Amino acid sequence: MASPSSHRGQQHCCFNDWMNLQEHDLSELLQAQTVEENGGDKEVQLRRLVDKNVEHFQAYAQERTRLARDHVSPFFAPSWCSSLESSLLWLAGCRPSLFIRLIYALSGLEIESQIKEFLEGLRSSDLSDLSLSARQFSMVNELQGRTIKEEEKLSEEMACLQEKIADQPIAVIAKETTRVLGQSFETNEQADEALDDHSRSMVSILEAADKLRINTLKALVSILSPVQALDFLIAGKKLHICIHQWGNKRDQKHG
Amino acid sequence: MASPSSHRGQQHCCFNDWMNLQEHDLSELLQAQTVEENGGDKEVQLRRLVDKNVEHFQAYAQERTRLARDHVSPFFAPSWCSSLESSLLWLAGCRPSLFIRLIYALSGLEIESQIKEFLEGLRSSDLSDLSLSARQFSMVNELQGRTIKEEEKLSEEMACLQEKIADQPIAVIAKETTRVLGQSFETNEQADEALDDHSRSMVSILEAADKLRINTLKALVSILSPVQALDFLIAGKKLHICIHQWGNKRDQKHG
Fold this sequence. Notes:
- 2 copies of one chain form a homodimer.
- Chain A is mainly alpha-helical.
- Chain A has helices spanning 7-34, 40-68, 73-76, 83-87, 97-119, 134-164, 170-176, 189-223, 226-253.
- The relative contact order of chain A is 0.15.
- The model of chain A has no long low-confidence stretch (mean pLDDT 90).
- Chains A, B: This is DOG1 domain-containing protein.
- Chains A, B: InterPro entries: Seed_Dev/Stress_Resp_Reg (IPR051886), TGA_domain (IPR025422).
């Protein structure tokens, strides 16, 4: 099929391709999880699979940035997402600190299930492959601190950018714009230039946010063992796909 | 015309009604600005007009909250706004600090034009009705500090709410959800309950953000003289209507 010619169509297509790729990657990750084989070979294979998934995310972000240069604002309020999904966005994507929160949730779940098994006599006191070690906890904790600081910095930049709309030149151009009664306000060269300038700043902030998302993901999987990283990527993809599909159903229900 | 039966239709209608009311209010404000009459009577009339505009904003916020109780997430990513407008949203509306930034922009513009007129010999050194006094500047400045602090508090609450998606119970329900190959993930009772709970928190944050927007607006117009408040409301409404219409045109251009 030829790719759509409009910018909006290409953006929508880019997101759909990404969701389809995530579905495909999820199947592959789930399959890898069931392989019984142990030892060095499996470790290497899993690490390769994890790296491939991170690369896919990076390629998606690059393609998105390329398209954003033509028309950036839809990425901050995408019509192709369910409203639930869109309401959870931070700078056109998920909060990087969400990855870390997910690791903690998975870890808590693992400990809970191990305690249960231990109390039921099904397990010795050894920790499973999925439990984070004390050293890993401390590294994740340190990464969380750094990530939240970076998030706050970018949130502040976005606040400045949003506030600038009510300042020179845009607010003044709007104030001085006149129109024929009953007609809408036309953009003029001045307004277009100011909005183009604003768009360029939005692209920069999108790039910075994507960079933070990717770097946080990379740092996180490098702290985790391949088996843990696999479990984390599966949970992350399932969460994203579920929120996307649950959100669509809720939107449909409300017309 | 009968009001639409779907929640989405009612939400869209609520926004359209608000934009139409703003158009009507803008005309009335512009007309009031041209009235030559001076003195106490005009002051009282203008103050009444300003208060009416603030009440309209408050009524819109109340109606929105009522509709949000049925389905909240579309208000955070509204399909009825242009993508430019949506990309500028902070908690489903404009940042309250934007009102203050606009006051500063208008004040700067006024001073600039007075200096120009003074240098051209068209004006004595007296300040016009629209210039902020030193006392007003200090009050606006103090309001800005308070508003930004409140904004930061609400932004943090929103961040917590967004991060909680990757925690118990939602992330765990998603992780444990299975599906028939090729089908989408169905919501179950557990997921629905968790998402309903999340929605209730989103309604609370929407209400808190609207309260801050309204309180900031009220505090601001109470600092301004009726003539200044009129000028500010005109500039604010023109800015909103322009961004809405310019954004629609830019979306159309990009397909």
